[in-house]
Design a protein that fits this description.
heterodimer; A: alpha+beta; Aldehyde Oxidoreductase, domain 4; 7-stranded mixed beta sheet; 5-stranded mixed beta sheet; 34 helices; 32 strands; B: alpha+beta; 2 domains; elongated
């Protein structure tokens, strides 16, 4: 930032009190003045230091503080580091390539030293002593005479600005007191208490909440459809959102602004948009083919020796291809920003790692001069290259401008995953081999790296910049192998991106090194030489060679010139692999960061294909170490993250978009999978400091691949090393080694589930209209006793009146709920005692006739969606109490839409015929052969409880099949399971479990009440235990051979045991999604969380005939549990696509209901489930 | 009609405040009952400890303790918290008087970006509440569904081990430990 004033609002003293600053002039054409400040010391002796880079969770703030305090000879707490703010810090480009310490700290260190020299000279004058006789301690300069003067005193009274010099004498490393020490990071205490302010925590007075809605081409940012695909915005679709301030759309940029965050979330999910279809992507399941087909320009980086001749003469030619998948940076916190656009100026609080570039982008987007934009950088979730931080800042700016107030925008997890500029896929091809004496003959290396400019999204979506894919030269990082091959050609094929991509830790150096370091291992094996020894023969860089030897020694590397099969421990074989690399970054030929070498130990389960990295010995030569703890922690982080990338990470794609949108679709490493790590730091305090943020990632994939080879004898040249890839590779190798054997026939499972959709064919003749019953003035409810009304309230709960007669978020019993039936949508009526719009004018005889015969007061027939065929069984006394309760409710004036069924169902008189055929208005008759409790249960279940209405199959005319009472039916698109011996539950119900389930909403042997059953159980809470017990007794009588509780427990233990392992024939993709998305709450024996932990092996829905309920629960979630004790389940409608959900459901069925056939119709079930999402 | 009925009905109204205790203070919150607790804590009570990470209960960044048990506040509706006691990171301790677990995280410098830290500490705290001396394996299992992208697992594990009474080497050489045979 060009500044004209050295005063900083952070300073504790005013500019007039005096200051010393070290600046670099940045002459401006217009004014001829302006400068960047590196160091400023105020009149209180406080030091302010400015760096254009930011701290991404690496501890850079602390390390820079150490450097400044060291050169200035002050205590650490005198130094305030200001990072990244565009109004204060120099523009030092984006924080990339781990170059803050190596590059941007250099002027800072010089500035601090220059300030010290200046102050020392001033003190020498004041104290009248030669400068070299003075000592400094924490900003106090002391003469041998014991006279002293402080920095504060020297600075006071004048404003001094010194132009930064590059030739200042720096302190001798041997005199360092702060640099080289493990200084605790300054911000960690605040992180542990919640006091740390991340960009996510910024609150501005009057701030609104925004969400963006991204286009369907998720993760694609080039092509003429980008910015031009939005056809229509249906603002009415969000008219019911409370606190809605604005729906904003510019080109393909769409956002909503509301008062509260949860309202913004709902609005964004609910907003109906129409988009043009978008073109399909190349098939990125096959990255090699896609990258070969992507137009490219070859760039030869090196061509030495006669490569073609050497290849032609190679004794053992070896041509190899290595494939790197797309990766997600995967910030744990989806990006967030707050923008305030007022009075023509813009202030943005951001987590960007490129604040100065962001400001330039914002200027372009908003057509504002940069001087009117203030970008304030706050800490954010780690981003490892680039995430959505810039995108969301631009989003917030647009929304703030639209509403003229400050707006906070939080990206969703799905948006962060899908639109994060990916670490790109890469293809490396090596042609080479051995000469007759086992030396490398030649090395012809070609790498294909789709570029990674990833312009800030809003610029593209609004059309501010054209969506043209730029080709950058980024594939050349560590493209030159470290080995001294006699003939070498290195070619980079520069190409445009296929999907949105940007640099990710290690950039192209990591994939390139995967190839270099796998290939040298293959050469060593072929030559019959130990792989470490073979490397050392051709590694001419002495620092590298020493590191390789140190790491091998620390790991107790045992030379292994030839590969021999490993002894298996059961199915598990172990192996170890070596790899070395130096991370070269910047424009070719680039600068080298720290050197790194790995020894990885793996265990491979040959049956399942699981690979565990059990131990990593990792060494690093980083030159001067500023903070050994900081370096060690960076190495740990790199080892763990790159192990995760190598073992399990891979972006999956839909035909025209990114498919991985949450942690199930894109799993990362978890605690039990983290290797033990042994760090070797090579001491080089006399050498300049090197970047340490990425180097230790670079050897990772090759070390692991080499270890897998050592364990199994099979080479894997494509990441990630997932169980399915490893198993397939091992099987293929086995097949190759053996004579051909017939392939196992895949078991074909007979699918049975046929699903009846009722076909309507109403042919009814009988006719009569019923007379109206005269309206009355509402009865005086004072004539009913409180006890009667209370009893009526219980009965209303039993009958679930409010469940159907209350709209979502509406007033209880005021109607308006749309009930989906096989015959069309029936709108529930208002049953509050409002005279005009409710039942206030209904006399008891009118009410009783409706309940027993299904006739409206005015004589109309009611549709049997209203279960009067069950209510008819209610006793007169109970109907009286129910009437009393309904009439005692507060009247609500609410007119609901009329039910409009299609012809001929719109002819209500036809229902008279239906009633004639299917309805018996007879009251309940007790069975004297049964107990009183049983009869009470039968009365409740068969009458007001109307359990049969859902749990009994219906005929084509929508009537319950009397012969199949409680044999299972359909409710609002959910399967209502059979309550008889036909139950699919793996553990049969008994009376106690029925009681527990109806009382609490959960049975440990079956699962929780969800879908339409959840409100039923909620309502039943009004009934006394005795009634619930009676219902359980009656329902249990349908299953005479019910097991005891102890027997149920034994069955549960058995089911959970036999389903505890991941079956090999199950969908591997489904398994990964389950592990990342479901296991947290459903894996038996997993951690304890608030709420229930339903065991899927016991869950009736997993064992049912159709996947309907499972699909519904996964898509919709259970957001309205029966009670708080059960917790809740999120819906995955917006997080997983149909392909992912299908694989997940297939996996769940195979694993948890292993004795049941695979389901047919998962696609239909998913379609139906998605149809219910607003 | 009696006043009882009005009350009954009022309980079902969306605008009726929901009462809960957060870090020892009683609050009455007027918000849609299906609002995830996370947004109430962050926006209404201005507690920055719990973080939004996924909204699906997958990553754990939003973890709080409800009635003594770890809960993922991004998927827990406000209505489920009625009458309950919620503890957030802020309720555990302060910089001046940290909980021993918080002190252990500082001691082991167990943070890189620190975004997942809330979930790590709160999940570990809930574990220690029911088992004050868990083994290394038990700690890893309890934290297995808390995601960290920076790769701070070694330091986090060391911090929780220390709080659980184990001796941990300063340089964390005893780190993680996968084994192969899942």
């Amino acid at each position: 930032m060009r500044r004209t004033d050295a005063a900083d609002p952070d300073m504790t003293t005013t500019p007039d009190a005096g200051s010393l600053s070290i600046i670099r002039s940045t002459p401006d054409d217009a004014t001829g003045s302006g400068f960047d400040i590196y160091i400023a010391i105020d009149a209180s002796g406080q030091v302010f230091a400015y760096n254009g880079h930011v701290d991404l969770g690496t501890g850079i703030r602390t390390a820079l503080t150490q450097i400044v305090a060291e050169e200035l000879d002050v205590a650490l707490d005198r130094v305030t580091m200001v990072l990244g703010d565009t109004t204060k810090t120099p523009n030092q480009g984006p924080t990339i390539a781990s170059e803050t310490i190596q590059i941007t700290a250099v002027p800072l260190r010089n500035a601090a030293a220059q300030a010290r020299h200046y102050l020392l000279a001033r003190a020498a004058e004041q104290l009248d002593q030669p400068a070299d006789s003075l000592t400094i301690e924490d900003g106090l300069i002391r003469a041998q005479s014991n006279h002293s003067v402080s920095y504060a005193e020297l600075v006071a009274g004048g404003i001094v600005r010194l132009e930064l010099r590059d030739d200042v004498a720096l302190k001798d490393v041997n005199s360092y007191k702060l640099v080289g020490r493990a200084i605790p990071r300054l911000e960690i205490p605040a992180m542990t208490t919640g006091e740390m302010i991340y960009v996510h925590d910024v609150r501005v007075p009057g701030m609104l909440h925004g969400r963006v809605v991204r286009p369907p081409y998720a993760g694609v940012d080039a092509g003429d459809f980008v910015g031009t695909s939005l056809i229509a915005v249906d603002e009415r679709s969000v008219a019911d959102i409370p606190g809605l301030i604005a729906v904003v759309h510019i080109g393909d940029f769409v956002g909503v602004v509301t008062d509260r965050e949860e309202n913004a979330i709902r609005a964004a999910a609910q907003l109906k948009l129409t988009w043009k279809p978008t073109p399909t992507l190349p098939d990125l399941k096959d990255i090699a083919t896609a990258l070969r087909a992507n137009p490219s320009t070859p760039r030869t980086l090196r061509d030495t020796g006669d490569v073609d001749a050497a290849l032609a003469n190679a004794a053992t030619p070896m041509s190899r291809t290595y494939v790197w998948p797309y990766h997600i940076h995967g910030s744990i916190g989806p990006s967030c920003s707050v923008a305030d656009y007022t009075d023509g100026g813009l202030r943005v609080w951001t987590g960007s790692q490129n604040p100065h570039n962001l400001r330039a982008d914002l200027a372009k987007l908003m057509a504002l001069p940069e001087a009117q934009i203030d970008v304030i950088r706050l800490e954010a979730a780690g981003c490892y290259g680039r995430n959505g931080a810039d995108d969301v800042s631009a989003d917030a700016a647009l929304l703030s401008r639209a509403v003229g107030r400050s707006v906070r925008v939080q990206l969703t997890r799905e948006q962060e995953h899908a639109w994060d500029p990916k670490g790109t896929g890469q293809l490396m091809e090596v042609n080479g081999g051995l000469d007759a004496s086992g030396h490398p003959a030649a090395y012809d290396f070609a790498t294909r790296y789709p570029s990674n400019a990833a312009p800030t999204l809003a610029l593209l979506l609004t059309g501010a910049v054209p969506p043209v894919a730029a080709t950058l030269q980024m594939g050349d990082r560590t493209a030159i192998p470290p080995y001294d091959y006699p003939a070498m050609r290195v070619t980079v094929h520069d190409m445009a991106p296929i999907v949105r991509a940007s640099w990710f830790r290690g950039v192209s150096a990591l994939p390139n090194s995967f190839a270099h370091e796998s290939y040298i291992d293959e050469l060593a094996t072929e030559a019959g030489v130990d792989p470490v020894e073979y490397r050392l023969r051709y590694l001419k860089d002495e620092r590298a060679a020493r590191l390789v030897r140190d790491v091998a020694e620390r790991a107790k590397w045992e030379p292994r010139p030839t590969w021999t099969p490993k002894e298996a421990d059961g199915d598990v074989v172990r192996g170890r692999g070596f790899a070395y690399a130096v991370y070269v970054h910047g424009t070719f030929p680039g600068k080298a960061a720290a050197w790194s070498a790995w020894v990885a130990d793996v265990a491979v389960n040959k049956a399942t294909g699981d690979v565990a990295v059990t131990h990593v010995t990792v060494g690093q030569d980083s030159g001067l170490v500023i903070n050994p703890d900081g370096v060690r922690h960076q190495i740990h982080g790199n080892v763990i993250q790159s192990t995760s990338r190598a073992l399990m990470e891979e972006v999956t794609f839909e035909p025209s978009a990114v498919a991985s949108r949450e942690w199930g679709g894109y799993p990362i490493i978890t605690f039990p999978e983290v290797p033990k790590i042994d760090v070797v730091i090579v001491e080089r305090q006399d050498q300049p400091p090197l970047g340490v943020g990425e180097s230790a990632s670079v050897p990772s994939a090759a070390a692991i691949a080499n270890a897998i080879f050592d364990a199994t004898g099979v080479r894997f040249r494509e990441l990630p090393f997932t169980p399915d890839r490893i198993r397939a590779g091992l099987l293929a190798a086995e097949e190759k080694a053996k004579p051909a054997s017939p392939l196992k026939k895949r078991r074909l499972l007979a699918g049975l589930a046929t699903f009846c959709t009722a076909v309507v064919g109403l042919i009814v003749a009988a006719s009569p209209w019923r007379p109206a019953i005269a309206p009355i003035t509402p009865p005086d409810v004072a004539t009913y006793s409180a006890a009667t009304i209370a009893r009526g309230a219980q009965l209303a709960a039993l009958g679930d009146c409010a469940v159907c007669h209350t709209a979502d978020g509406g007033i209880v019993n005021a109607g308006g709920r749309a009930l989906e039936t096989p015959f069309g949508t029936v709108i529930a009526t208002n049953i509050t005692p409002d005279v005009e719009t409710g039942i206030g004018a209904w006399s008891f005889p009118a009410f009783e006739r409706a309940m027993r015969q299904g006739i409206h007061r005015d004589g109309r027939h009611l549709y049997p969606a209203f279960p009067y065929n069950h209510f008819a069984k209610t006793s007169e006394a109970d109907l009286q109490a129910l009437y009393a309760y309904l009439m005692a409710q507060p009247p609500v004036r609410q007119t609901n839409p009329e039910t409009k069924l299609p012809f001929p169902l719109n002819l209500r008189p036809l229902l008279a015929g239906w009633n004639l055929l299917f309805h018996s208005p007879a009251a309940f008759a007790a069975d004297p052969a049964k107990s009183e409790v049983w009869n009470r249960g039968a009365y409740l279940v068969e009458g007001l409880g109307h359990c049969r209405a859902c749990h009994t199959p219906r005929n084509a005319l929508g009537a319950e099949k009397a012969s199949l009472k409680l044999a299972g039916g359909i409710a609002e698109g959910w399967t209502a399971p059979p309550l008889t011996a036909l139950s699919h539950a793996p553990i049969p119900w008994n009376e106690q479990e029925l009681f527990t389930y109806l009382r609490s909403g959960i049975s440990q042997f079956h699962g929780v009440a969800a879908g339409p059953m959840a409100p039923v159980v909620k309502e039943l809470s009004a009934l006394p235990d005795s009634d619930i017990r009676a219902m359980a007794t009656y329902l249990a009588s349908f299953n005479p051979n019910a097991p005891t509780h102890e027997a149920q427990q034994a069955m549960a233990a058995r089911l959970e045991t036999i389903t505890s392992a991941k079956p090999l024939n199950a969908s591997q993709q489904g398994a990964r999604i389950y592990d990342g998305a479901c296991a947290v709450c459903h894996e038996p024996g997993g951690p304890q969380w608030f709420g229930s932990r339903p065991s899927l092996a016991l869950n009736s829905n997993l064992h049912g005939a159709s996947p309907d309920n499972l699909a519904r629960v996964i898509v919709e979630g259970i957001t309205q549990p029966v009670n708080g004790d059960l917790g809740a389940m999120p819906g995955f409608a917006h997080s997983l696509n149909d392909q992912q959900l299908t694989e997940l459901i297939r996996y769940l069925r195979t694993r948890f209901a292993p004795d049941k056939p695979a389901w047919d119709g998962i696609d239909t079930a998913l379609k139906a489930a998605r149809g219910t999402i607003k | 009609m009696g006043p009882r009925l009005r009350e009954d009905d009022a309980e079902r109204m969306t605008s009726d405040p929901i009462r809960l205790t957060v870090n020892g203070t009683n609050h009455s919150i007027a918000a849609a009952p299906d609002t995830p607790l996370l947004y109430i804590l962050r926006n209404d009570l201005e507690l920055n400890g719990p973080k939004f990470g996924c909204g699906l209960g997958e990553c754990g960044a939003c973890t709080v303790i409800v009635d003594g048990v770890a809960a993922r506040s991004c998927v827990l509706p406000l209505s489920a918290c009625a009458g309950r006691s919620v503890t957030t990171l802020e309720g555990l301790g302060s910089r001046e008087r940290p909980d021993p677990l918080q002190a252990a995280f500082v001691q082991h410098q167990a943070a890189q970006c620190g975004y997942c830290l809330n979930g790590m500490i709160m999940t570990a705290k809930a574990l220690l509440l029911r088992n004050p001396h868990p083994s290394e394996q038990e700690i890893k299992q309890a934290l297995r569904y808390n995601l960290c992208r920076c790769g701070t697992h070694v330091e986090i594990l060391a911090a929780v081990m220390t709080a659980a009474g184990h001796h941990v080497a300063r340089d964390h050489t005893a780190g993680g430990a996968a084994d192969a045979t899942h």
